[in-house]
């Protein structure tokens, strides 16, 4: 019996130095562009007073870059499949400088702010550029953690929320100059340091055909639904948690903002944990467990417990579950999607996750207006998370690991 194959040494599956270099650069770029993407939201109160905006106009001003950035990921992912992250990351980062600086002359006109906010959505598309880059450089058994580390770049939104208003206290235009300068330096470094994997397969078909092909994959929409629950829940709480804490628990705006920042920090920390766990057990099981935790904690919060300590524990555990699920879903993407389509699928899944975050705040606000209670909203969240957990366990765990 020939045992040559059995005696041959296993191939070296350790990520290369280039893999870690690209991971670091992608994560930094993701963080900076997401900071830029979220520049309007922390200052929206000032814009409301300066321009005499209604609550709806203020909400629309905040929503425009987020919606454009979420939808823009579809095109960004498909373009990354075609042209590679080596071109897309520095180009998108450099182009984002333009709307960041345009915020300076536009800040005295609501119409101009809406137009600039539309352009600022470009910064929210880099998620779909980084996922296929990191995915291509790391072997399957290391991708979960690597993608989770890259996903920590979503913390750029939290950094913006904390630092932007504090920097603006010194000079109203200073945050825009600082972010534009950081993006300029990064785009120059990215042009030199980011490299596409030598074995990257370049698709030859058209953009429309690639998006259509990705859209016809059943798994694209299954992953989109799971990500809309996980990441959508994170976005929803990031948008609505300060309002909830101020309204229901009668907290001051500063205290509510600090608590909300803690929630965001927990989601950022647990995203790579979700990826790390997915490298060890099937990511569908991790997703199911994480969403089940979020569902149980939402039920606890539906009964309006005192914030100290039970409410705080429930909200932080919910954050941990949603953050873990966000990391494990993209570990699933890396396993079940053909390498040449990772960008296109990532774009669609990422877009659905971003858009999924804007339905819950609207529902929560409408329910509170009608019933003077948030309990029904939390029970609906628990139902969604439980449905996602059941589907991830029942259907997604049957998908075989990539060999």
What order do the helices and strands follow?
HHHHHHHHHHHHHHHHHH
**Sheet having the most strands:** none
* Unreliable runs: 1-11
Residues in helix, %: over 70%
What's the total count of β strands? 0
Distance, first to last CA: 25 Å
- Give me the Rg, rounded: 21 Å
What share of residues are in beta strands? under 5%
Large-scale geometry: globular
Global structural class: mainly alpha
Average pLDDT score:
84
Specify the number of helices.
Answer: 18
Describe this structure in words.
By secondary structure, the chain is mainly α. Helix content is about 80%, strand content about 0%. The protein has 18 helices and no strands. Helix 2 packs across helix 9, helix 4 runs antiparallel to helix 16 and helix 12 packs parallel to helix 16. The longest helix is centred in the middle third of the chain and has 31 residues. The two termini are about 25 Å apart.
